[in-house]
Amino acid sequence: MSKISRFTNKAVQLAKNAVGGRGEVAAPEGGGGFAEYAVLSLHCLRVYLEKSYRETLDLLSEMPQILGEIGLDATDLPDHSTLVKWFDRIKTALWRVLLRLSAQLHDPSGHAAIDATFFDRETASKHYCRRTNYRVQTLKTTALVDTESHAILDVHCTTEKRHDTQLGWQVARRNAGDLASLAADKGYDWMELREKLREEGVRPLIKHREFRPIDHAHNARIDGPRYRQRSTCETVFSTIKRTLGDAVRARAWFREFREIVLKCVVHNIKRAVTP
């Protein structure tokens, strides 16, 4: 079985689990619409192939075996505009469920790292920027990554200038029940964050910024090997940008967030199906 076939098979399974496995037929019958799992699978393939909507559908029309995994054939493929509309129609909560399920393809270690990076927002025309007040050119993305499997457990996106400590707690709080430790660099140095993590039963591996001798003493007590695994995030970010693109094509913020989540889902599936 080829790599893309293994990827498609796993993506379809996850999509069916995410929507609840209602037993729908992938292709519309008698004027009905496409099944949600089929549309989710097509979007996963779009990101996997790193192609536009038109190019993805054009390539898939020549791949009957891949379409067969979804339950479609070439004549069933929707128009690219239909795929775009479905991307807006599917709720954000469903994309998050898909991300969580893709992370569960890997055995969780309980040890995670958190860090942030920036994805470029694709350049828009000056007229569009003036009309929509489109000024921020990058999308700040904070990811929680399992240090053993390199699976992305959760993700947060923003165009605002919020501090890493605030974003770090927001992401960590959603996943505290699954974590034993959390590693982060000095950008997340905040005593209240450490205290909140301890209250949730999570060991904070966050070094102090060194202003006083006691800060050096605190840093010396940090678990060396576990703390050094915080660079796992940088490795994952580099992999995603190199293989799935370092920019988001969508214009609206909520579409950009969904596109980032989809990149994370594809990353998790690719790692799961790679021997």
Low-pLDDT stretches: none
Rg, rounded, reads: 20 Å
Terminus-to-terminus distance: 12 Å
Question: Can you say what the CATH homologous superfamily of the largest domain is?
Answer: Ribonuclease H-like superfamily/Ribonuclease H
Question: What does this molecule look like?
Answer:
The protein is an alpha/beta fold. The protein folds into 2 domains: 3-90, no CATH class; 108-249, Nucleotidyltransferase, domain 5, CATH 3.30.420. The protein is built from 13 helices and 6 strands. It has helices spanning 3-19, 36-49, 53-60, 64-70, 80-89, 92-103, 126-132, 164-175, 191-199, 213-220, 224-228, 232-244, 253-273, and strands at 111-121, 138-146, 152-158, 181-184, 203-206, 247-248. Strands 1, 2, 3, 4, 5 and 6 form a 6-stranded mixed β-sheet that branches. Strand 2 and strand 3 form a beta hairpin. It is globular. It starts with a helix and ends with a helix. The mean pLDDT is 89. One of its GO terms (biological process) is DNA transposition. InterPro entries: Transposase_11, Transposase_Tn903. Residues 110-269 form the Transposase IS4-like domain. This is IS5 family transposase. It comes from Halosimplex pelagicum.
